[in-house]
From TrEMBL:
<feature type="domain" description="Nucleoside diphosphate kinase-like">
    <location>
        <begin position="1"/>
        <end position="137"/>
    </location>
</feature>
<dbReference type="InterPro" id="IPR001564">
    <property type="entry name" value="Nucleoside_diP_kinase"/>
</dbReference>
<keyword id="KW-0418">Kinase</keyword>
<dbReference type="GO" id="GO:0006228">
    <property type="term" value="P:UTP biosynthetic process"/>
</dbReference>
<feature type="binding site">
    <location>
        <position position="57"/>
    </location>
    <ligand>
        <name>ATP</name>
    </ligand>
</feature>
<keyword id="KW-0808">Transferase</keyword>
<feature type="binding site">
    <location>
        <position position="85"/>
    </location>
    <ligand>
        <name>ATP</name>
    </ligand>
</feature>
<feature type="binding site">
    <location>
        <position position="112"/>
    </location>
    <ligand>
        <name>ATP</name>
    </ligand>
</feature>
<keyword id="KW-0067">ATP-binding</keyword>
<comment type="similarity">
    <text>Belongs to the NDK family.</text>
</comment>
<keyword id="KW-0547">Nucleotide-binding</keyword>
<dbReference type="GO" id="GO:0006183">
    <property type="term" value="P:GTP biosynthetic process"/>
</dbReference>
<dbReference type="InterPro" id="IPR036850">
    <property type="entry name" value="NDK-like_dom_sf"/>
</dbReference>
<feature type="binding site">
    <location>
        <position position="91"/>
    </location>
    <ligand>
        <name>ATP</name>
    </ligand>
</feature>
<dbReference type="GO" id="GO:0006241">
    <property type="term" value="P:CTP biosynthetic process"/>
</dbReference>
<dbReference type="InterPro" id="IPR023005">
    <property type="entry name" value="Nucleoside_diP_kinase_AS"/>
</dbReference>
<feature type="active site" description="Pros-phosphohistidine intermediate">
    <location>
        <position position="115"/>
    </location>
</feature>
Length: 148
């Protein structure tokens, strides 16, 4: 089944939003397949956001991501990449709808609490980058209560 890479950024960890964010993905019905609290260095952050290296905000973005521990996760479920992005909200939290994570918990673009893969292909790349050792193999016993 489809998987996505979700990262709670340093501000989300510092603001004690970890439980809230994990709870939203759990309650939606997605399955947690990988989870770690970790700090990354700027070389790693640059790899993760390599597609944005030409952007004027790139250095600030890298500084932000290395500024404290992050929670890296793999979530699984039907359409989880696109649905995860909807749950997260738009890049600019001031434009994110209430009810989304960024809409409810953030104001600034450079402090927008959470990352989610933007496509199935980028999810695969990001999962391989963040979990090179692989992720858990398990199937939730709630599976047939969530998927028809
Ligand atoms: P991610 O899930 O983190 O990848 O965000 P996104 O997919 O909604 O946006 P994008 O990939 O375009 O940008 C990655 C991150 O860079 C954003 O989440 C912001 O934290 C930051 N960012 C994007 N655009 C801007 C900008 O114009 N100014 C600043 N300061 N930060 C930006
Ligand atoms: Mg992105």
């Amino acid at each position: 089944m489809e998987q996505t890479f979700i990262m709670i950024k340093p501000d989300g960890v510092q603001r004690n939003l970890v439980g809230e964010i994990i709870g939203r993905f759990e309650k939606k019905g997605f399955t947690l397949k990988g989870l770690k609290l970790t700090s990354v260095d700027s070389a790693f952050a640059k790899k993760h956001y390599a597609d944005l290296s030409a952007q004027p905000f790139f250095n600030k973005l890298v500084e932000y991501i290395v500024s404290g521990p992050v929670v890296a996760m793999v979530w699984e479920g039907r359409n989880v990449v696109a649905t995860g992005r909807k749950m997260i909200g738009t890049t600019n939290p001031s434009e994110s709808a209430p009810g989304t994570i960024r809409g409810d918990y953030a104001i600034d673009m450079g402090r927008n609490v959470i990352h989610g893969s933007d496509a199935v292909e980028s999810a695969k790349k990001e999962i391989a980058l963040w979990f090179p050792q692989g992720i858990a193999e398990w199937k939730s016993s709630a599976h047939h209560w969530i998927f028809e």
